[in-house]
Amino acid sequence: MSNIKKGTSRERNEFMWGWLFILPTMIGLIILNIIPIFQTIWESFFKTGDFGRGNIFIGAENYIRLFKDAEVWQSVLNTFKYAIVEVPFSIALSLVLAVLLNRKMKGVSTYRTIFFLPMVAAPAAVAMVWRWLFNTEFGLLNHIFGGNVQWISDPKIAVFSIAVIGIWSIIGYNMVLFLAGLQEIPRDYYEAADIDGANGIEQFFNITVPLLSPTIFFVSITRIIGGLQVFDLIFMVMDKNNPALYKTQSIVYLFYQNSFVENNKGYGSTIVVLLIAIIMVITVFQMIAQKKWVYYN
Amino acid sequence: MEQRAKITTVVIHLILVLVSITMLVPFVWMALTAFKSMTEATSVNPFVIFPSVWRTENFTTVINNMDFPILYLNTLLLIAGRVIAAVLTATLAGYAFARLEFRGKNFMFSLILFQMMVPGQIYIIPQYLMVSKMGQLNTIFALVFPGLVTAFGTFLLRQAYMGLPRDLEEAARLDGCNIGQTFLWIMAPLTQSSMVALGIFTAVFAYKDLMWPLICNRDVMPLSAALAKMQGQYTNNYPQLMAASLLACIPMIVLYLIFQKQFVEGIATSGGKL
Q: Domain residues of chain A, as ranges?
């Protein structure tokens, strides 16, 4: 009898302390995040009235407009183009760099420090200096390669130039995640492969890639989601009167423009809902596909 | 065999040096341009790499025009506000989710996981409307606001507490500590490294945040938003733009070079545990 009583008082005690501890986080989370999810979805059925007339319910009109809006679909295409270049290249390059750095060698920590440097630079500053490097007339790149390439104003290539900045910015971060994953692979595997006469490239594809596949999967999922949300670089690199703007503006860029420049928060919300739908579909596909190539111990 | 190993090492160094140069060139070019005059920066024939005189005018101009001391202060307050709030709330909640049993815990934790999966843009319009309704637009509070709590940090700290041995807690309880005392004196100090990791992670991302400061504040700006605004005004004065960029980057880079290990581990382990 006394045991049961003791048990319940302990339970009550943990209940009280538990809720006390999580309360600040949960109140904040519900106000800042959970309710806003529903508000944004709700808002996507409204048109923000001009001159403070408040919100007008317009049903599915924003969605109808969205499906007919060529600018939106162009931005979806631009975002995909950006992600298709940034994600695989940044992952492949950082994987190779991580493998090269994963050995006892002089200078490893210096290289790591240098590669990681862009992670701590403000994206606004990064975008500005790359804009300057890409400058057609006075830029360092055209000077070195002796060309006259319009890196960021030619609609055909601008989005890829921006992806180059994206790759440069993220390589160090991916690399550090891969390095952490590489440290978990037992050395014996490589020693055994050495005895069997496998060369470095064979070892890379037969040992490193399969054993690192959970990390590769994790990095690619977060990178794809990050790539689809690209905003800072495009906002900073592309001027309003840049002829390539239409072919580079991303989904989030259009969200920003519609919500906070043109002040139509209803339509802005509709664009966010589209973004989330796209990210969800792609993530689900990746989850299904991982069963085919990710190797868990 | 010896010979081959040596060649391999040389080739690896060669590749790594080339990549290092690629990573550093933008920073070096930023610095070189910042010391140039406009004429030097836009001279094509001959192409000027090093400024003839190391001018500091660009720096003095942007420091005065943009009021850099205030920008540093705003950025510092933004970072401090978000770091303190995140570490404090996440430590408390992380402990409860890891070690206490109470009704409603699983549902609340599922909300944490749910928040981590939803792309952040969905929160922005309602958060803006809240700040606006509170009449707090254009304040430091507005800058800190979206970072008052952190689902991700809570998750990170929960993982840290789950990795600690249980006997410590049992011993403290037997000695008569209540749950609050056990947490404060025994458990929380053991997760210091995770708190530091979360703090650095939060600081770097607060510093890099661009869209939210652009939206909520017109005057009380952190460095990121001020750079964006400046680019709109002095579109083509690259020496000045580069001077401002350099001034904006230097504090974080210096901190990074001093606390390299903590930075890399903080950002990467935080990211890696997500």
A: 2-43, 62-293
**Among A96, A99, A294, A297, which Cα is nearest to A214's?**
A294
How far is Cα A155 from Cα A51, in angstroms, rounded to an integer? 36
Nearest residue in A to B112, CA atom? A29
- Based on the domain organization, do B176 and B102 belong to the same domain? yes
DSSP assignments along chain B, one per residue? -HHHHHHHHHHHHHHHHHHHHHHHHHHHHHHHHHTS-HHHHT-TTTTPSS-SS---HHHHHHHHHHTHHHHHHHHHHHHHHHHHHHHHHHHHHHHHHHH---TTHHHHHHHHHHHHHS-THHHHHHHHHHHHHTT-TTSHHHHHGGGSS-HHHHHHHHHHHHTS-SHHHHHHHHTT--HHHIIIIIIGGGGHHHHHHHHHHHHHHHHH--HHHHHH-SSS--HHHHHHHHHHHSTT-HHHHHHHHHHHHHHHHHHHHHTHHHHHHHHHHHHHH-
Ranking A53-57, A146-150, A207-211, A275-279 by mean pLDDT, the lowest is: A53-57
Q: Is A83 on the interface with B (CB under 8 A)?
A: no
- Of A230, A221, A229, A219, residue with least CA distance to A91: A219
Residue A52 has pLDDT above 80, yes or no: no
Is residue A246 within 8 angstroms of chain B, CB to CB?
A: no
Q: What is the pLDDT of residue A2?
A: 44
pLDDT score at A24: 97
Q: Verify whether the Cβ–Cβ distance A18 to B8 is below 8 Å.
A: no
Q: What mean pLDDT value characterizes chain B?
A: 92
Of B28, B57, B86, at which residue does a domain stop?
A: B57
| A138 contacts chain B (CB < 8 A) | yes
Q: What is the reported pLDDT for B44? A: 81
| Mean pLDDT within B137-157 | 95
DSSP state of A49: P
Which residue in chain A has the smallest CA separation from B184?
A21
Residues 6+ positions from B211 with CB-CB distance below 8 Å: A231, A232, A235, A252, A256, B124
pLDDT in tens, B82-109: 999 999 999 999 999 999 999 999 999 9
Say which CATH number the domain at B193 has: 1.10.3720.10
> How would CATH label the architecture of A62-293?
Orthogonal Bundle (1.10)
> Tokens 């409603």 correspond to what residue?
B104
What residues in B contact A119, CB-CB < 8 Å? Answer: 204, 267
Tell me the per-residue pLDDT of A54-98, one tens digit each, with 9 for 90 and over.
Answer: 678 888 899 999 999 999 999 999 999 999 999 999 999 999 999
Q: Determine, for residues A121 and B33 on separate chains, whether the beta-carbon distance falls below 8 Å.
A: no
Domain range for B19 = 2-57
B6/B126 same-domain check: no
Q: Check if the interface score ipTM surpasses 0.90.
A: yes
Using the predicted structure, report yes or no on whether residue A192 has a pLDDT greater than 70: yes
The predicted model gives A145-159 an average pLDDT of 92
